[in-house]
Specification:
Oligomer: single chain
Largest sheet: 2 strands, antiparallel
Structural class: alpha+beta
Number of helices: 4
Number of strands: 6
Radius of gyration: 26 Å
Strand order of the largest sheet: 1-2
Order of helices and strands: EEHEHEEEHH
Low-confidence stretches: 100-106, 117-129
Strand content: 15-25%
Distance between the termini: 54 Å
């Protein structure tokens, strides 16, 4: 903005500090992008944290949608006390996930479960998760 006694004018100004173009950023090929997206969009397994056997609860709806929607991968219902949910063996989260994964979502987990998700968890998911 330039202002004078005669008035003001706005100018769109570009200041060039270096006329040499920046080097091109490396771009992954299409095959690599699709492979990485499939890990997210088509997982081999899904853990439903907060799964519930009680009809009407969100955790129950998620389980039913996965089962009735034709999901072909493994479904792990996570519940601190239930033995099974919708004919699938429920597991406690304390032994399910690698510590590196659980540290990322620590602000979302209940305080009562925090002690159980430790680096010493014996049962782990395969390294690709």
């Amino acid at each position: 903005m330039f202002a004078s006694e005669r008035g003001a004018i706005a100018a769109d100004v570009r200041i060039v500090l270096d006329f040499n173009p920046a080097p091109a950023r490396p771009r992954p090929n299409q095959e690599l992008i699709v492979a990485q997206m499939n890990r997210i969009m088509k997982p081999d397994a899904v853990a439903v944290i907060g799964a519930s056997a009680e009809a009407g609860k969100i955790g129950n709806s998620v389980m039913k949608n996965l089962i009735n929607g034709g999901y072909q991968g493994a479904i792990y219902p996570i519940h601190p006390t239930a033995e099974s949910i919708l004919d699938r063996k429920a597991t406690r989260a304390s032994r399910m996930f690698p510590a590196r994964l659980m540290s990322r979502c620590s602000r979302f987990r209940p305080r009562s479960w925090r002690r159980r998700w430790s680096k010493s968890a014996k049962r782990r998911l395969p390294a690709r998760y």
